[in-house]
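Quick check before the chapter quiz. The format below is the same one you will see on the exam, so make sure you can read both the input and the output lines.
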Amino acid sequence: MIIRRLEGQEVLDALHLVWEVFAQDVAPLYTAEGVASFQDFIRYPNIEKKMQAEGLALFGAFEGPQMLGAGGILPTGHIALLFVRREYQHRGIGKALLMEMCSFAVQVYGVQKFTVNASPGAVDAYRHMGMHDTAPEQNAGGMRFVPMEMWAASVPIRKKRGKGMYIAGAVGALCLVLTFVVGAAITRELDYAAENGVDGYLEDGGQWGEDGSSIEDWYDEFYGDYGQDDSEPQEESGIDAIPEYVDEDCGYEVTEDNYTYTADNTSSTTIQFEVYYPQVDGLDAAVQESVNAALQDCALASVDKLYLDPSDEMKEKVLGEEYPVLASFVEYKVTYQSQSLLSVVFQDYSYEGSESDYHVALRCVNINLQDGTLYEVKDIVSLDDHFVSAWAEGMRDEADDDTLLSELNTEDMKAVLGGDTKDGVYEPEFFVDAEGLEIGLSFRYPADSQDDRGYAWVTAPFEFDEIAAFASDSSFWTLVR
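Here is the expected output.
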């Protein structure tokens, strides 16, 4: 399934989907006045105006050419629309749409809190997605809804990158104060609609079918004919864009484990961890224990720092916050899996004490499956002028930014790649994939640093033949193709 922003004809397709689901699942719960208000809201001229003048962003969930669900979010963080076709409900599509829209709003609009006016039938679903009620059920213009909200700390931010580059930070913050009372609803089963058919309401209080009309008739009246989705598939991004190499006959199995925890009984503190990581089964017992411990430790680095084993400094920081936020959302990808080497990348989205203290980090594990040896950048390449020059050029090409790392001279770069983090600003990382190696840095510049170019991490790609000229005498090179 692909989730992406909608454009052109796709907007009309989305509005058709929205109306169909609304008529099935929500309209029977509204008065005729409420249905008419919703009809007016989703008229194409009104939606187009909100997109152009008020920043409404529409998204669709696709399986091949078919749109399974659609949603919309405003620059305020308000979820204006979220609907999934009935036959695809209860499959996680609604949550995936919500998370993608919220991730977008954090990055582009600088949103810190999300709100929704949930129809009565959608409240439980929104609760499962992380929303909580902020007031009892209300009625405005015949539309019944429950106001709900969720902090951005609960959203795993999926930021986009090209291969080898990961852009961090908000692209911009739009301080627009927009308020809409919209009965946004997502999926629910409704026996009424199943038994009585799809009965949307006309503006005069009548029902569809009284004059032989249908939902399609109403849609065509407002929007005209709609065509098939012939858009191109969305290009993969983030760690999904890394081309992995997997030897199916490697002799061991890779499984998934996780650490998840949410503190439910805290009124002012947000604590939420959702961390996924691989584990291996089928190696020598002692080596397997070492490998699995290394993978788990890397994945849980932020959890340890924030919660399981916090420093005194971290404890004081949390105690000094009015509304502390401790969160870590970690995803991973096995980029290279052979009989003797495993390379895994982790992306960690964390909030380290407050909503404003948000970070994205790349961490990698490259481990010898024969003896448990872990490899770092300094182990696999000769950190001489020749390599550093080629590496810096590759970093700037990937970032499409000639000023990247301009604050470092050649000797500084050698030191950083050798493990000198410069007070935590730079973390050297590398991973192996189907095409070669990528060597780079995770960045954590101080607030308002003039050197910060807005990247969370950047990695420079080297094909296997290309990197051979810089290879050290490490045992690592006996393990790769």
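If your answer matched, good. The two ends are 32 Å apart (CA to CA).
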